[in-house]
Write a structure and sequence with these properties.
The structure holds three protein chains of three kinds.
Chain A (H helix, E strand, L loop, with lengths): L6 H31 L1 H13 L1 H31 L16 H4 L1 H29 L15 H8 L3 H28 L8 H30 L2
Chain B lengths: L6 E9 L8 E10 L5 H14 L22 E2 L2 E2 L21 E5 L8 E3 L2 E2 L2 H8 L22 H11 L6 H5 L6 H12 L2 H4 L2 H15 L9 H5 L7 H16 L1
Parallel strand pairs in B: 1-5
Antiparallel strand pairs in B: 1-2, 3-4, 3-5, 6-7
Chain C lengths: L15 H8 L5 H4 L3 E5 L3 H13 L2 E5 L17 E2 L11 H11 L6 H21 L24 E2 L5 H18 L3 E4 L2 E9 L2 E9 L5 E5 L2 E4 L20 H8 L4 E2 L4 E7 L22 E5 L2 H8 L13 E2 L1 H5 L9 H16 L10 E4 L1 H14 L7 H27 L8 E10 L2 E2 L12 E3 L17 H21 L13 H20 L5 H15 L6 H21 L11 H25 L23 H4 L1 E6 L8 E6 L14
Helix pairs in contact in C: 3-6, 3-13, 4-5, 5-13, 11-12, 15-16, 15-17, 16-17
Classes of the chains: A mainly alpha, B alpha+beta, C alpha+beta.
């Protein structure tokens, strides 16, 4: 269909996948916060998520598809963005009319993507390896009776460098969300004078609170594990 | 009118002989400018000085000089139509600048707005977008129905007017980091989408105009809102949300 | 019989247009495809004509000097458009609109044309609404009207302060539809340099592509000029910078008569000139006079103190102010018609009471303080505030004024940096519209066959003075509803002509002449800029052919303009080349034509020994200084024939017969 090649449709796909990721992120944060409140529940939920076929074979592929779609569309659109102005201004005062976040989604987005690579390396690849290549679905280390998830999590945050990278990445995630949240509503056309202030407020709260939550959890484990 | 202090300025002006030539920023000192002069009058003074010196005057678009025809453009100190809000360059006055200031003056830049000469750009892409559907198909027979036969809710009529206030200057494109024409296209789409007369062709209109804008090389919308801030007529990006809505629903059925 | 045949149809006034339409020749649709029409100018008249002719099936070539047809200066009209819809039920009718227009024009227009204008006015509103023009509406969803220009009914339709822009965008959208269909071929950034006459008929134009500098020949079976007015002959006016007389003047030089060039409308409420570098004047809507009081200081020394900045307007005591309009015209006061208000301002400034420190002290106060106090007191009563303080009253009053005129006050502040809520506005009259133009008959055809003039470019409907909100009405009436009929009647004879060749000797000669003129200007290499001459011409026009004209002054103007023209051709400097985008060259060509028109303008003013509408001769006024019309001697249209130079132009007179209205003297005392 010819319409689907237009940037509006591409942006709508960006917006919808973005909103989907927003929901996912909230879910992720809630599970993570269990690691602070109650390590046992954290272990149980982690095990459920990691072994439930519906999560693993339905939701997980959708999520990965969403991430890839968001990324691919982002890159295509960025290319289109750049093509539209081949000769740049010698002197630009863009700060006078728009926020840094809105103009630099590609920077915050790529930073978050790079972080995602690290995050996959840290957690996702090992999990896939253990569960689906080695075939160990027990969720426990050999000879132990507790789930291994919480310990592994704590272990990751021993390194101050990793902790630093995580925190910095969440700052970029926040910058990305500060614009992205409300922008996605605008793109899908769900924004007008009546709802705009609410959406903006909600977006700002989300964009600050969720990354901050992740940062607090990371710091919490860093502090606890270093003793 | 006031006997305010005259300004001494340094201008950095984009000079480019024609569309194919390479351009560059030239520096011109300019003295004794009245703060009551308009920005374009300041350029008139520069030009008369250049002619007297045997140099070629700076070319720029302008016509009505009262902020409505949309001819004047200019990217002044990093913003389309300069630092003031809700005005076009022709209504910008020199009292917005300080004595001794350096002022950068560049053309509106976009792939779809090629430079013709100096500060003048070709904005005919806007015309072609309108050709693609910026109208209601009604003949001028004089036999249309009476103007009062379709009442239109005042709120819609006012809203349509605010969208129709677009003067087609291209500041939205110039301000946008992606040189997107979304605000321009959305304003036109909205005006008609809000009126019963325009609803009949609404689907084809939005599909065709949006596609034409992309064909012209305008970029996608990143919702930065820069266009809304720089628009001399204060057109809201709510129009873009409306256009996207219209486009989505049209895409589903067409 | 005079050489001027107005071709007004016989019969009663109200049946003329209907009978005419019933009896004209039509062109069948298949033949229309073989007929080309050139339309020059894309304002309300040209744009609406181009769209309609293309809809009918003609091949239209449309030209404008702007980068888009949407930017023509019709766009700047603020107030509104009149139509005899009688939606308000206040007694309006076609006849009343006709009568108001004839009377407003001081009985110097043609009855039949004006009646037709009033007749089609309702169609315009229907048409524009169908096109999606967002006129103002009331809460019931129906169209709103306002009252305008001192008439007794509310018949003005409006779209906030942008009626002109919205109507033009309507016409532009109609054009776009035809451009998309290929029925209009659009030539943006093109300027017409000459019209080509073959065998006595207009058959094409010579145009310059303003981007490449190429000179092009374009042929057609008829040529329509919708090229606007010539107010820029005064240099400073409310016209656009590019507005010019070139198309009309070149048509005049090719045989078309120029009618009533001296009828100029000077609008009383504009922002005054601030200095010699000024390029343009800005209008403030006439509606401000509903609440503003116009005054100057009563004492010369106060006026001088205001000018040199040592005295502020607000510090001048009430008894030291001269509310001269209220003094001279007690019954109409500040609401006298445009021409009367303008002349009164000039009279005070000439006497030394002007309040602006420019060369001629040209400026008066427009004061809202009294209105603010009045509205403030009313509001306090409505709000039930007993014993309001002075501050409360002022603040309430300012709110009321802001609601009514907020956007105008903002614009004033933007331009002048003065706060008009706190200190009186400073205003002065400025050239705004020219009622004169190419002479046309009832068909809107000039005396050159196949050459039409519509909108402000012709002379036909406004007589010696135009009413507010009537310019838009005339432009659209001509383009949408009149010309498409009348031109068909003419083109019906052209169905067998076939394509017009652009290789004929007439085209070659016209192109050569245009090229030669351009080369002359480029190669002149004089010492003075084009603006120098334009400003000088403007000053002569303003001082001697402006609001009040005298025999002595007009004679001086005629010789000064002729001398200036000579100097122009000797000493003008046009930088750059002819084969590139060259804005100085464009201006030079336009100023060259203004320098000829200016002289004819002054001659016309000298010849018309009476005062009427926008034309005021000091020698012809009543004992109280009011305009003195001389109907017995001057109830005619002056149509000038070009014979080589403006001083040799021959005057033809079209007598104006008034069968349906009685000629009366306007009084506002």
């Amino acid at each position: 269909m010819e319409n689907s090649k237009t940037s509006i449709i591409r942006k709508v796909l960006m917006a919808l996948s973005g909103l989907f990721l927003v929901i996912f992120l909230l879910q992720h944060l809630m599970i993570n916060s269990l690691s602070v409140i109650n390590p046992d529940s954290f272990n149980e939920v982690s095990h459920f998520m990691g072994t439930n076929p519906a999560v693993q074979f339905l939701l997980q592929p959708i999520l990965i598809f969403g991430v890839i779609l968001h990324l691919v569309m982002g890159i295509i659109i960025e290319q289109q963005n750049r093509n539209a102005r081949p000769i740049k201004y010698a002197f630009s005062n863009a700060g006078a009319n728009s926020s840094w976040m809105s103009r630099n989604m590609i920077i915050s987005g790529i930073t978050v993507m790079l972080f995602l690579g690290l995050h996959f390396y840290d957690f996702w690849f090992p999990e896939i390896d253990i569960k689906f290549i080695q075939g160990d679905m027990s969720g426990m280390l050999e000879g132990e009776t507790d789930f291994r998830y919480f310990k592994e999590l704590q272990h990751k945050f021993v390194s101050p460098v990793r902790m630093g990278i995580y925190c910095l990445s969440f700052v970029f995630l926040s910058l990305h969300l500060l614009h992205g949240f409300q922008s996605s509503f605008q793109t899908v056309g769900f924004k007008n004078r009546k709802y705009a202030p609410t959406i903006e407020k909600l977006g700002n709260i989300y964009a600050v609170a969720v990354p901050l939550g992740f940062i607090i959890i990371a710091l919490f484990h860093f502090i606890n594990s270093s003793h | 009118m006031s006997a305010a202090k005259k300004l001494n300025l340094t201008l950095k002006v984009w000079r480019q002989k024609n569309g194919n030539a390479k351009g560059n920023l030239e520096t011109y000192p300019l003295a004794d400018i009245s703060p009551d002069s308009s920005f374009l009058e300041m350029l008139d003074i520069l030009n008369n000085g250049l002619i007297d010196k045997g140099e070629s005057p700076v070319v720029f678009d302008h016509d009505c000089r009262e902020g409505i025809c949309g001819s004047c453009s200019l990217y002044i100190n990093g913003e389309p139509h300069g630092p003031a809000r809700l005005v076009t360059t022709c209504q910008l006055h020199m009292r917005s600048f300080k004595d001794g200031e350096t002022i950068y003056i560049e053309p509106f830049r976009a792939k779809a707005f090629p430079v013709i000469k100096d500060l003048m750009v070709d904005r005919s892409a806007f015309d072609r977008i309108q050709h693609a559907g910026g109208y209601i198909s009604v003949n001028t027979s004089g036999n249309t129905q009476d103007a009062n036969s379709i009442p239109i809710e005042k709120e819609d009529a006012d809203e349509a007017f605010y969208s129709a206030a677009c003067i087609g200057c291209g500041a939205c494109v110039a301000a946008c980091k992606n040189a997107s024409a979304s605000l321009f296209v959305a304003a036109k789409v909205s005006q008609y989408a809000l009126l019963p007369q325009g609803k009949i062709e609404a689907k084809d209109r939005v599909l065709n105009m949006v596609k034409q804008a992309e064909k012209e090389g305008f970029g996608p919308c990143s919702n930065t809102g820069a266009c809304e801030v720089e628009c001399p007529k204060g057109i809201s990006i709510e129009n873009i949300a409306r256009m996207n809505r219209e486009f989505l629903s049209a895409s589903i059925t067409k | 019989m005079s050489k001027l045949d107005s071709k007004v149809p016989k019969g009663p006034l109200k049946d003329k247009w209907t009978n005419y339409k019933n009896n004209i020749n039509l062109v069948n649709p298949a033949n229309k495809r073989n007929i080309d029409v050139i339309v020059v100018g894309t304002g309300l008249a040209g744009g609406s004509a181009a769209a309609t002719l293309a809809e009918l099936g003609y091949n239209v070539k449309a030209f404008c000097y702007q980068d888009s047809p949407r930017r023509a200066h019709s766009i700047a009209a603020q107030g509104g458009i009149n139509a005899a819809k009688n939606y308000q039920g206040d007694g309006d009718s076609t006849y009343r609109l006709f009568y108001d227009t004839i009377k407003g024009g001081d009985y110097r227009s043609r009855e039949a044309n004006v009646y037709r204008l009033a007749e089609v006015s309702s169609n315009i509103i229907d048409q524009c609404v169908a096109q999606g023009v967002p006129f103002a509406r009331d809460y019931g969803g129906l169209l709103d009207n306002r009252s305008f220009g001192g008439v007794l009914v509310s018949r003005t339709f409006y779209a906030k302060g942008q009626t002109g822009q919205q109507l033009l965008l309507g016409a532009y959208s109609a054009m776009n539809r035809q451009i998309a269909k290929g029925k209009i071929q659009m030539f943006n950034r093109h300027e017409m340099l000459d019209v080509v006459i073959v065998d006595g008929k207009a058959r094409g134009i010579i145009a310059r592509d303003l981007v490449t500098g190429n000179i092009e020949r374009h042929s057609a079976h008829a040529v329509v000029l919708g090229t606007g007015g010539y107010g820029n002959v005064f240099f400073l006016s409310t016209n656009a910078m590019g507005s010019n007389v070139t198309a009309a003047w070149k048509a005049h030089k090719k045989g078309a008569y120029f009618a009533n060039p001296c009828y100029t409308q000077i609008h009383p409420t504009c922002i005054p000139v601030h200095g010699t570098q000024q390029s343009k004047l800005t209008l403030m809507s006439e509606s401000l006079r509903n609440d503003g009081r116009i005054w100057v200081p009563k004492n010369l020394k106060d006026a001088e103190a205001v000018r040199n900045g040592s005295l502020k307007a607000v510090n001048i005591e009430e008894e030291d102010r001269d509310y001269y309009l209220e003094r001279r015209y007690p019954s109409f006061g500040n609401l006298v018609p445009r021409d009367v208000a303008s002349r009164a301002a000039k009279e005070r400034c000439d006497a030394g009471y002007g309040i602006i420190a420019n060369d001629t002290n040209e400026g008066v106060f427009l004061d809202f303080a009294a209105a603010i106090q009045r509205y403030g007191t009313e509001e306090a009563l409505i709000k039930g505030i007993s014993n309001p303080t002075q501050e409360e009253i002022t603040s309430l009053g300012e709110k009321v004024i802001e609601n009514k005129y907020g956007n105008l006050f903002d614009m004033y502040k933007q331009i002048t940096d003065d706060n008009p809520y706190k200190t009186p506005m400073r205003i002065y009259p400025a050239v705004h519209y020219t009622m004169g133009g190419l002479w046309v008959d009832y068909n809107l055809m000039t005396n050159v066959e196949g050459m039409y003039a519509i909108g402000e470019a012709n002379f036909s409907d406004h007589g010696a003075n135009r009413l507010g909100a009537s310019a838009l009405m005339q432009g659209l009436a001509d383009g949408y509803f009149v010309l498409p009929y009348t031109i068909g009647d003419y083109l019906a004879n052209d169905i067998r002509t076939g394509k017009i060749s652009t290789d004929s000797p007439e085209f070659v000669a016209a192109e050569k002449k245009a090229t030669d003129e351009i080369n002359h200007l480029i190669n002149n290499k004089g010492s003075k800029t084009v603006d120098y001459f334009h400003k000088k011409l403007g000053l002569i026009m303003w001082n001697k052919v402006g609001m009040a004209r005298t025999t002595v002054g007009l004679n001086e103007a005629i010789s000064e303009i002729a001398a200036l023209r000579e100097e122009f051709y000797k000493d003008v400097r046009v930088p750059g080349e002819s084969n590139e985008l060259n804005q100085e060259l464009e201006k030079a060509g336009r100023v060259a034509d203004f320098l000829e028109l200016g002289e004819l303008f002054a001659r016309d003013a000298l010849e018309r020994e009476e005062s009427c509408g926008g034309h005021f001769r000091e020698e012809y006024k009543t004992e109280d200084g009011e305009a003195l019309r001389r109907d017995a001697e001057f109830a005619y249209v002056s149509a000038w024939e070009y014979t080589g130079k403006p001083s040799d132009a021959i005057l033809h007179k079209e007598k104006l017969d008034f069968e349906n209205v009685e000629l009366k003297t306007r009084s506002y005392k």
